[in-house]
């Protein structure tokens, strides 16, 4: 059994009552610090959104708290168990949506879900029953016997989410679950996840879509440069402002487009000359007259007809 990693000195202890408790998580890849002292508590039964710009450390943080990636420092507790001291038990209690390039896509949708259930220790009949229910819930019943490799991007995303849910985990961890999903399927997924959270399950999602997070989530953490810039309920983090405006205040990086003054959408006098100023008026040179070709008389050998 791997030894537990302790939190950094001076930090409060891990909170065993939280669904997820993180203290001082740190991860470096070469010269790049991906996560730099991340700390937060995620309440049981919450719908928790992790938001941040690309490269902020969201996916790396999720991989560490789910036992997929070992941190270089700090500690994480999931449902009262320290992750790296009890990694197998932690993995059994959570559902992680796999990336679409990490699944066995030569299986059919039904086969993939049965495999996912049996991998979690379920008997085949129960795995098959739950797979049937999930395929119906995700509007994939008609594609149950179709290879996942032939699914659309949105269908593949849905089968990955179904695979994460088949063993009825207490915690769902979903990295960009609504990416490439059509609006109708997205609404159905939201309903399923909200219902799951209402029964006491905890959902953690990462997303770039502020409107979705503001509408669905009860809590949110804004992450930038591998650190938590703000965390709490959505109302607390928004602080009376639109969540997207608040996000931009916290992470920065918004630039004026004034230096693109040449980008004018083809305004008057600019069309077709790459913004080099008004197009000069020129007179096209006269073209030489083309002689009129009279038809050849019948039987003329210069013509292409047969002589009469």
Automatic annotation (TrEMBL):
**What SMART domains is this protein classified in?**
AAA (SM00382)
**How does the UniProt record describe the way this protein sits in the membrane?**
Peripheral membrane protein
- Give the UniProt subcellular location, in the record's own words: Cell membrane
**Record-level GO cellular component terms:** plasma membrane
Q: Which GO terms describe its biological process?
A: response to antibiotic
Query: Compositional bias (Low complexity) spans?
Result: 276-295
Q: InterPro entries in the record, alphabetically? A: AAA+_ATPase, ABC_transporter-like_ATP-bd, ABC_transporter_ATP-binding, P-loop_NTPase
Which keywords are on file for this protein? Antibiotic resistance, ATP-binding, Nucleotide-binding, Transport
Question: Where is region (Disordered) located?
Answer: 269-308
Decide whether keyword ATP-binding is in the record.
Answer: yes
Signal peptide limits: none
Q: Which Gene3D superfamilies match?
A: P-loop containing nucleotide triphosphate hydrolases
Reading the lineage from the top rank, the first entry is Bacteria
Q: Which GO terms describe its molecular function?
A: ATP binding; ATP hydrolysis activity
Ranges for domain ABC transporter: 20-250
Give the CDD domains listed for this entry. ABC_DR_subfamily_A (cd03230)
Manganese: present as a keyword of the record? no
Q: What is this protein called?
A: ABC transporter
> What organism is the protein native to?
Bifidobacterium aemilianum
């Amino acid at each position: 059994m791997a030894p537990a990693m302790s939190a950094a000195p001076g930090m409060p202890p891990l909170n065993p009552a939280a669904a997820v408790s993180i203290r001082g998580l740190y991860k470096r890849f070469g010269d790049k610090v991906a996560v730099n002292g991340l700390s937060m508590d995620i309440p049981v039964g919450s719908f928790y959104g992790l938001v941040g710009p690309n490269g902020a450390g969201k996916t790396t943080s999720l991989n560490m708290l789910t036992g997929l990636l070992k941190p270089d420092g700090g500690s994480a507790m999931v449902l009262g168990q320290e992750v790296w001291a009890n990694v197998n038990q932690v993995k059994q209690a959570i559902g992680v949506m796999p990336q679409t390039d990490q699944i066995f896509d030569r299986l059919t949708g039904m086969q993939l879900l049965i495999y996912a259930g049996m991998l979690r220790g379920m008997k085949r009949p129960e795995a098959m029953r739950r797979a049937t229910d999930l395929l119906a819930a995700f509007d994939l019943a008609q594609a149950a016997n179709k290879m996942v490799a032939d699914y659309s991007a949105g269908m593949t995303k849905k089968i990955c989410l179904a695979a994460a849910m088949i063993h009825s985990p207490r915690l769902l961890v979903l990295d960009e679950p609504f990416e490439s999903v059509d609006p109708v399927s997205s609404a159905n997924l939201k309903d399923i996840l909200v219902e799951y959270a209402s029964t006491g399950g905890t959902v953690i999602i990462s997303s770039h879509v502020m409107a979705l997070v503001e509408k669905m989530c009860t809590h949110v953490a804004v992450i930038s440069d591998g650190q938590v810039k703000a965390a709490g309920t959505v109302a607390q983090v928004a602080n009376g402002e639109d969540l997207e405006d608040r996000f931009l205040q916290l992470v920065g990086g918004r630039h004026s487009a004034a230096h693109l003054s040449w980008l004018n959408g083809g305004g008057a006098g600019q069309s077709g000359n790459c913004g080099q100023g008004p197009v000069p008026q020129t007179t096209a040179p006269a073209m030489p007259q083309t002689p009129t070709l009279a038809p050849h008389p019948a039987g003329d050998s210069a013509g292409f007809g047969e002589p009469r």
